[in-house]
Amino acid sequence: MDAFGRYLTVWVALCIVAGVLIGKYLPAIPQTLSKFEYANVSIPVALLIWLMIYPMMLKIDFKSIVDATKKPKGLTVTCVTNWLIKPFTMYLISVFFLKTVFVDMIGAELASEYVAGAVLLGAAPCTAMVFVWSHLTKGDPAYTVVQVSVNDLILLVAFAPIVAFLLGVGDVMVPYNTLFLSVVLFVVIPLVGGYVSREHIIKTRGLDYFENVFLKKFDNTTIAGLLLTLVIIFSFQGEIILNNPLHIGLIAVPLIIQTFLIFFIAYGWSKAWKLKHNIAAPAAMIGASNFFELAVAVAISLFGLNSGATLATVVGVLVEVPVMLTLVNIANRTRHWFSQT
């Protein structure tokens, strides 16, 4: 591993600090970038996510997607963890910490709003960044596409009832423009782009050139895109972080515990079922990470832009990348626990 990859934790920390400082002292930059947003999806962040996902999509042979649908165990782990376990453990953990342990520090009313934001995160499994985590753990790219696609189909019908049940609210409106835009931006376009590039280069330059020359040009592209995404995300919220450090820290506690819990449930289940590591790691990552664009959009529509629920979903955005990189590291270090491809 080169120095760039070896000291990734250092670069992540520096990018987080840089983003917060930019948000505080150069607010014109995030203010300008935030104008390029549609349906709660940041276009600059979307471009960087393309940069991260494209190398993974290049590796997908469409025949392998068909084969992936014939292997139900990994899909079962993903779906059961995401829809029958994760929303409910998120509710229980956030209620315990925010409405019991920390209630004297934040107040009962805000605690309820923070729990609502946590539940919105817990009911929305990841669509975009999971491709990055899969790539970093050498996951099966075709199987990851199938896992994400199945989750998105379930989300269409399960998200609103689960949120309504756990929060006791009615008329939960799923912002379908956010959902469909995210699927198109983060699944369809990169997948088509990778397929077209792959077919063209193999046809014109050969498979050996594609695998040993072209793909290697993107070795550090995913990491570079990830670090730039961190700078942008933390610059957007720099002022909030500096103005509310205690509450952000308190909200982060149940979110981080939930992330580790869900990861180990899916990862341990995958090991018990003797799944290969390149399926087990992405299955665990999908449940652990969140579709935060959707969660933020629903929080704003249900509770308002300046609500505690919206702040909690934003904290979910802030903690996700550093925590998920920790889980990537754990998955890579425990690769020997699993059968290999």
Task: Kindly list the characteristics that best describe this protein.
341 residues, mainly alpha, two-stranded antiparallel sheet, 2 strands, 80% helix, 1% strand, globular
What does the model show?
The structure is a single chain. This protein is mainly alpha-helical. It has 18 helices and two strands. It has helices at residues 3-6, 8-25, 28-34, 43-58, 62-68, 72-101, 103-106, 108-122, 130-136, 141-167, 176-205, 207-214, 221-236, 238-243, 245-272, 277-288, 292-303, 308-333; strands spanning 37-38, 41-42. It has a two-stranded antiparallel ribbon with strand order 1-2. Strand 1 (37-38) and strand 2 form a beta hairpin. Helix 9 packs across helix 10 (141-167). The chain is globular. The model has no long low-confidence stretch (mean pLDDT 87).
